Amino acid sequence: MKEIALYIHIPFCDHKCIYCDFYSITNYTNESNYLKAISQEINHYGNLNSEDKKVISVFFGGGTPSFMSPEYIGTILNELMRYFHFAYDIEITLETNPGTVDKKKLIQFRNIGINRLSVGIQSFIEEELKFLTRIHDADTARRTIIEAKEAGFDNINLDLIFNLPKQSKENWLYNLDEAMKLPITHISAYSLILEAGTILNKMVLDGKVEMQDEDYDAELYEITIKYLEGKGFRQYEVSNFALPGFECVHNNAYWGSKDYIGFGTSAHSYLNSKRWWNYSSLNLYIEAMNKKGIGVAGSELISMEQQLEEYVMLSLRSSGISLSELEKRFGGEWFNKNEILLNQLVNSNYLRKDAGIVKLTASGYAICDEILKNFD
Ligand code: SF4
Asked: Which of 72, 109, 236, 254 is most buried, most CB within 10 Å of its CB?
């Protein structure tokens, strides 16, 4: 059976954070219509594609899925289970924001089958949380993780953001130290990115906020890698670190070029060399579901050349390029064209070759995008 991952986008949020460019809305009036549309979409793809597939991961992302009631999330999970075959060791993740859950609600999420939480902490420093316009404070962040563990979650990711304006190295290390005091198995550490169309972008353009430079960003990134590896968190992708055995199955499905189906607004899907994406508008999505039975806004067929490019990019950023897998899927041409460069990068300690797998080293991760640009 072919392995597949499923993603469900829950777009509702309390407010819009200044740096956020995900599709999210603060108006909840269409909540129940959205649930109906998602159920209809599950029914559509379930009937088309489920028999020969085994679901290895379900990921509720957003938006703020933890804002919804456990019944709401449970209804979606039940619909998925009606149409898809779930692996016995399936990973089911709920993105969770501190300030939206208490212990009782966490227990209810655990009881409906959620077995992994990804908690958007971002920082343990009050001024940084205020700057990011998060709704929680540092104590609520700590309490959420502790209560999640008490509620029975043994697989907890924590998201942090570094290189905030004026963030000192000491402050960033403080955030990492605080994270280490909590019962987590995984950390996603992202550099603050200025995305077009965000409130933060406007603040920078208006001269109200100054971003730090790229060299400082690279320094903080290298500090992060060394720090987390020293604590036993193995880097398995540019921004992701896990204790052994706790790498995110869902992330690995994306980076391993496996098939996935996304449900809901702005969700992307990739199946049998075709990619499609849904409307990034709740009204347009619901209208399309009502009229056509699918919420697709656009699609493209991925050529072999694009598939090769994506395979190299995604695997190098994560578990490494398996040369035998590469040859099996795309032939030997790419390796022949890039062999000299690969050897140079190994000699300069940006890459290492291990049992036929070409992987980035810690210094290689820091210049990953540059490396990718130079391949033929
Ligand atoms: S809570 Fe998350 S999805 Fe919602 S606005 Fe903030 S960053 Fe975006």
From this structure: 109
Bridge partners of 190, per DSSP, are: 161
Pairing of strands 2-10, 357-360: unpaired
Domain 305-374 CATH (choose: 3.30.420.40, 2.60.60.30, 3.90.1310.10, 1.10.10.920): 1.10.10.920
Ligand 1: does its nearest atom lie under 6 Å from the Cβ of 184? no
Model pLDDT, residue 355: 86
Strand order in the sheet with 296-301: 234-237, 240-242, 186-191, 156-162, 116-122, 85-96, 53-62, 2-10, 259-263, 268-271, 274-278, 296-301
CATH architecture of 2-255: Alpha-Beta Barrel (3.20)
Dist. CA 269–CA 274, nearest whole Å: 8
What digits encode the pLDDT tens for the residues 271-283?
989 999 999 999 9
Single pTM value for the model: 0.94
Give whole-number Cα distances, 374 to 302, 311, 337, in Å: 22, 15, 11
Q: Is the CB of 20 under 6 A from ligand 1?
A: yes
- 57 and 250 Cβ atoms separated by less than 8 Å: yes
Q: Whose CA is nearest to atom 5 of ligand 1?
A: 16
**Which tens digits make up the pLDDT trace of 73-85?**
999 999 999 999 9
Domain residue spans in the chain? 2-255, 305-374
Ligand 1 centre to CA of 309 (Å) is 31
Nearest CA to ligand 1 atom 7: 20
Mutation test of ligand 1: which of 10, 12, 13, 129 has the most ligand atoms closer than 8 Å to its C-beta? 13
Count Cβ atoms below 10 Å from residue 87 Cβ, excluding itself: 14
Q: Phi and psi (nearest 5°) for 109?
A: -65, -40
